[in-house]
Amino acid sequence: SFELVGYVNSLLLYIWFSNDYELLVNNKMHFILIGKDGAKFYLLPNTSYTVGRKDCDLLIVRDESISRRHAELVVTNDKVSIMDVGSRYGTFINNTKLTINASSVLQDGATVKFGMLQSIYKFQAVSIVNTTSGIKSEHKTQLKDNMVTLGGLLVQNWKKDCNYVTVEEMMLTVKVLSAVIAGVPIVNVSYWDDYVKCVKAHEPLPDVKNYVPKCSEVIINDNISFEYKEERRELFKNKLFVFPKKSDNEKMVGLINLAGGDSVSWDTHPVSVDEIVNGKSKEYIVMQMSNIHDSIQLSQLLTDFVHNYTKLGYRTIPLAEIALAIIKCSCIKHCNPKFKRKTCVFKTCTGQVICRYVLAFHGCN
């Protein structure tokens, strides 16, 4: 057994009061030319690059078929155009020779060849869709600038095409938990400073493993892994989470769906104890109120339902257990209405601008 004391707001709830900034950048990519030797030349938005044998941005010096000034690349927010500026031996896209001084748009995956020898590059678009959680105000401006430089898309909420989550500390928010399920890198703000430096220097990108944020949660120990596990995508399979309020369900449904489950709210989809006990296709998970003050506003019907439900030996599930189940990749103890905890007590922590609730599992398994 163990004793667990932690702020519920750090286990999902505080994210409901978060004030992360809105969409800041309207493009979402930069581009790379990858040489046959694996060397990468990064192309940033709103920039032009010269290609040639001397005094150019992309220098190709060991190929006698390359002209001193061979071609030009022009990058906008969402595309790259290439133009042969009068080279002797030509520029080719997918083996098709370009007309001199005529601009052509490169498509993702295209092969670009300069001259007649082996100066061959693969063109790739790199998409960055980044969301944040708990970023300090003094770091927001720099992060925004980095996203602008990289052509990244900075979004307020988790989306299915997010491929990064940036945080100051590893807190179990909806965004972080979504990233854990999806196998998306979770990085600190320093990652993007170094990413930009590497791109500008055309050096290998920093390894995300070296930028994992420090974990500040009291529930997390050294045995917990945030690494991707495919099983998390079906962790809540055949489980139906029943939230007391529609607003609670709306905030959690995306996360639950991502882990293979479904959810409804009591006020739009009331269920009976018989329906739960006799349900064969799904296991019902009845959730506690997210806000302790909301309990006084429960309808008599819901109050009676919870009373009869717990009388049969089931327990209602605190919101924190969704986070615990996802992190530990197990529903044996967490989100299991039949698992008996010795004590589950809500305590109020006073003196906070936003009322926070301490969830204490005294002597829980």
Automatic annotation (TrEMBL):
Residues 32-98 form the FHA domain. One of its GO terms (molecular function) is damaged DNA binding. It is found in: Chromosome; Nucleus. Its main location: nucleus. Keywords: Chromosome, DNA damage, DNA repair, Nucleus. It comes from the Eukaryota. InterPro entries: BRCT_dom_sf (IPR036420), FHA_dom (IPR000253), Nibrin-rel (IPR040227), Nibrin_BRCT2 (IPR032429), Nibrin_BRCT2_sf (IPR043014), SMAD_FHA_dom_sf (IPR008984). SMART domains: FHA. SUPFAM superfamilies: BRCT domain, SMAD/FHA domain. GO terms for cellular component: chromosome; Mre11 complex. GO terms for biological process: double-strand break repair via homologous recombination; mitotic G2 DNA damage checkpoint signaling. Pfam families: FHA, NIBRIN_BRCT_II. Gene3D superfamilies: 2.60.200.20, BRCT domain (3.40.50.10190), Nibrin, BRCT2 domain (3.40.50.10980). Belongs to the Nibrin family. This is FHA domain-containing protein. It comes from Photinus pyralis (Common eastern firefly).
